[in-house]
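I have been asked to look over a protein record a colleague put together. What it holds is a sequence and that sequence's fold in token form. Please read both lines and tell me whether the tokens look consistent with the sequence. I do not need a full report, just your reasoning and any doubts. This is what I was given:
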Amino acid sequence: MKKLLFIFLLLFGVLFTGAKAQITIAPTMVFIDQQERFGSFLVLNGSDQAQEVSIEFPFGYPTTNTEGNVEMVYDDSSRAQQYGISNLVKGFPQNFVLQPGQRQTVRMTVRPKDFSDGTYWTRIKTTSNAQNPAVGEETDDGITAQITYKFEQVTTLFYKHGDTNTGIEIQKFSQQNSEDNFEFITDVKRSGNSPFLGTIILTISDRSGNTVVEKRTSTSIYFDYRQVFEVAQDELENGKYTAKITFETQRPDVPSENIVQMEPVSQSISFTKK
């Protein structure tokens, strides 16, 4: 028990230190086009330890499961061939050490290719770990534990070529009840030649047209997508309501000029709370 307690405390201490003492990356989305093939992002070490940093460019995209939870896909070779630029991106530097408080600009360029019009992408995986991790202490029983904690952050590089466009086709917008919540489920398909970067907004209005509930989330839709909003039963009084789902190409974390624009897309349904 003494050995187990020691290892648990050491693991907790290392994870807690690693979780609060890692690097910061900005911005989380980098945009390049055929006019300007260079982009960059900043890596900042805010910890009190030197950090070894490495950069990789895997292809991947988010999707959603039946519950509406986001999952990442990294093994879609056909879409990687159609939309991926991982093999065309060169970053420099890709391996470096940051001292405490130090920052490093990572520059990237996309090599030319016979692209069709549209938006292409790769993920930017930034991995960091302390250059000199804490050494485990030895117990009275001669047991030594040492843990190296690695921290990964995944951001995105977009490459826009020629005329770009995007759209959202709402396949189904429905409402169902659970014991404590109303669930509003929207299944959509992205159209056009570029991912949808924007905001999904759910508004619920009463019979007089007054908005009684509004929920919104920023998201990126690459292909098919399911959005689930939950509204607590006790947020609504008994009566008839209209629920409206809206997709718009505006996000608080991305400048509008970097987003492929479309006209907002909406759909409404009626429901009753008894």
In short: The CA atoms of residues 57 and 124 lie 5 Å apart. The helical segments are 2-20, 77-83. The radius of gyration is 23 Å. The chain is about 10% helix and 55% strand.
